[in-house]
Design a protein that fits this description.
Layout: E1 6-14, H1 17-28, E2 33-40, E3 43-51, E4 57-62, H2 67-75, E5 79-85, E6 90-95, E7 102-108, H3 111-123, E8 127-134, E9 137-144, E10 149-155, H4 161-169, E11 173-180, E12 183-190, E13 197-202, H5 205-217, E14 221-228, E15 231-237
Antiparallel strand pairs: 1-3, 2-3, 4-6, 5-6, 7-9, 8-9, 10-12, 11-12, 13-15, 14-15
Length: 238
């Protein structure tokens, strides 16, 4: 999740990749950009937003991480803004944005090695802007230029409202959530541009849609989507 001034959002879920791409391309034609993407419970779910300051977007994918294609887009001034794995392919979303000045990505075979690599990049002034997991591989995307302060949880249960409220009082909000094996990974960051956040969880996604519409009416933006323990998780910020 990279903060942006949002002028409208549109959210969709589809079972087939071709159907979700049809939706994405329709919204691209209306100057919307993918700001969140996830796969779980057999569904692709994508959020597109009218994002000020974004200029162009592309999707690349492959059974192995599409390193050469990412390098080509880096040369054109695009940066990784989202990564997902649908059980077959790595799906990489890259966007023309000006908040990021440099970027790197890595894969590791264990969480301990993943944690070590994140700490090394933190020491160099990078922030962890996207996390993904697929086929036993942990993937991290590290970006410069944001100047966030970060910490995370790796727990068997999603953090309680009390813990999330305490983090907000410290100026930290959730910027990514993902399932690592049988645990939930929740990344929190400060200095993101957001100051308030609401989290909704439910196995019934249609119920979450109702809550999402209510939060949109309260000027919240959907910033992070996750799937854990057969529940969908929506994180809304403003």
């Amino acid at each position: 999740m990279i903060a942006t001034k949002v002028n409208g959002q549109s959210f969709a879920s589809r079972e087939k990749w071709s159907e979700i791409m049809d939706f994405i391309e329709e919204k691209w034609d209306n100057n919307y950009f993918i700001t969140e993407f996830d796969f779980g419970d057999g569904f692709y779910r994508v959020l597109l937003s009218g994002s000020e300051g974004w200029n162009g977007q592309a999707i690349r994918y492959g059974k192995v991480f599409p390193e050469e294609k990412v390098d080509e887009l880096w040369q054109k001034g695009y940066y990784i803004t989202n990564v997902g794995h649908d059980g077959k392919d790595w799906i990489v979303i890259m966007s023309g944005i000006d908040q990021i000045t440099d970027q790197a990505w890595f894969t590791r075979s264990t969480f301990e090695k993943f944690e070590e690599s994140v700490s090394e990049y933190w020491a160099k002034g990078y922030d962890l802007t996207k996390v993904s997991y697929g086929n036993g591989t942990y993937l991290g995307v590290m970006s410069k230029g944001l100047n966030w302060g970060q910490s995370w949880w790796l727990w068997s249960e999603f953090p309680s409202e009390e813990i999330l409220d305490a983090k907000q009082k410290e100026g930290k909000i959730i910027t990514d959530i993902i399932q690592f094996d049988n645990k939930i990974f929740a990344l929190t960051s400060s200095n993101t541009g957001y100051t308030k956040q609401r989290v909704h969880r439910n196995k019934d996604f249609e119920r979450l849609r109702e809550l999402l519409n209510n939060r949109w009416d309260e000027d919240y933006s959907l910033t992070t989507v996750g799937f854990y323990n057969q529940e969908w998780i929506l994180v809304l910020s403003k």
